[in-house]
């Protein structure tokens, strides 16, 4: 039944409908469209809101009295509390327009995440980047072992990302466990993560702002963060996408707990208990998902401290919000310890991190509760908290020196390290890098982050997004990999900025945090409003949205690269090459990709990362052949390996190992394949046949043959000098008929593969 409040809310949203409501109140009984002076659009809106209903006899006003009271302004001041439950199922959404808008926002996220589709779905599922093949290796290995259980997660992953690998293994096995199924699971899981994260961002934003428009805008802006988009793009099956779900689940649960405390909701309410459980699941999942997961749990500890200070400042009980958060940490600590002790997951240091969080959180909450009772000011609580944190760190370093040493070592080697890996550079380390990874969201979101931080004194509902955004902004400044965690939280402020700016240009009502009424429904905008909102998004979000597919494209393996890997795979199978004779030596960012398809050993790229750059820059091909002879079967070179003319990378890629421009050819590197676009060239390591003959003493001897391989035809030339007796030897990497002086000599395949000597006749 429609109420006066419903009609009043509609008029607040659409004051232009007041004449239409007056018109439909005039008829005493049922009426038709032609009986009233109302256009079809206005009538449709009134019907959709339930103010007018259609019967067999015509249209009628659902409740004349309630509608007239609304027009007269006689509406009770008591308002319906906005829906703030954790349920994100369809019944919790107030009307189809909100559902459609949220679906549209998620569609934007989805569309920006699947731009890699053609590169991922080739003849096989070709994952993007390098690291996803590490997890694919372990999952497929587990699937081939029928004895695999959670307790038998391989040691190589049990101390790294056990929950991620166990989850992917479990889902893949449920769906059949074939290589094709596993590839599909790996390809789509990041996209699913992005959509789930989007829903959690929406719920968190609405929980804080009471404005569904801001929530929907936040989801769209999250979709435009390239630093988040590339890590949740189709095929990028790294651990990051898995982390985001646990992180946002924790933040959403904490937001509900804090909000319920502010609103003085019963501590044992279903809503608060569900939120507490969400925090517990989130913390446990985050810790078990990644060996650096405790780093993502730190903001929860900061939040507990900030909440205690805010509670004392606003004179509310710190135990009301801090208690559930500490209880959730304790539950998570129990789950993590069971997984550690029963399954062997993670090191002791990682396993005890939720315990440390619980102890620290309990101390802060008790300190805040005591401070409130003795009327200690909030500044005093902040001081006590800081001293307690320093004392706790000192005590930990003394009581567990080995674990403390691991903490400091991990900080140095993982957080503040500087190396050639792009994700370890700082957000502002490259000119304009922040703009490409975050877009204008950083520019428009940070001012509203500052506003929310300042207004925490008046409205501490903002505690969770403020704490988490500042924390991950600080981490992103150190390493850009954390832009993925920053994006969803900064998007909350981006959504608020968007709706606020829309209000400033008269295309929206004020957002709730800026004095507007709680927005639970979304009206149907007219064409002018649609165009204005779209233009505003183009201005603020289009640049970031354009960067997402561009960044995603940098991760893909092209069709030519995949075909190169396929050729090596076929060649290895044809010649019965087993690992490591089939190992592919390449630039390290592509190394796992090649080795997955060629020999299945994509566990590590360490050898390539350590040696490949030195290899292509070397001027000693024979020395590197000796080093690689028992370690690799294939060498891949690309235009990136070209340096000066004497370097091995240049001699292989540009000259195909042949003598050219006064630079000697190479004898043990045999070009076998060139991709259609000539970007990828594959060499095999061979002993090479030795041509032995005689010529004029001290004469220069040149041998040459024409080589045809898949994708290339070229002249292969070697040159040597006869000794004082006229004897010479020269090693060649290709079979074929060589011209030597005025004659020819034939080198067969066997001679090249075994390093045999081929005699050059004196007449030749």
Automatic annotation (TrEMBL):
Assigned EC number: 2.4.99.21
Oligosaccharyl transferase STT3 N-terminal domain mapped to chain residues: 120-250
Transmembrane region(s): 98-121, 185-202, 214-232, 244-262, 269-289, 295-313, 325-343, 349-371, 378-396, 432-450, 462-480
Keywords: Glycosyltransferase, Magnesium, Manganese, Membrane, Metal-binding, Transferase, Transmembrane, Transmembrane helix
Predominant location: membrane
One Pfam family per UniProt: STT3
Every Archaeal glycosylation protein B peripheral domain range: 688-737
Cellular compartments annotated: Cell membrane
GO MF term (any one): metal ion binding
Domain of life: Archaea
Lipid bilayer topology: Multi-pass membrane protein
A single Gene Ontology CC term: plasma membrane
Family according to the record: Belongs to the STT3 family.
Name the UniProt record assigns to this protein: dolichyl-phosphooligosaccharide-protein glycotransferase
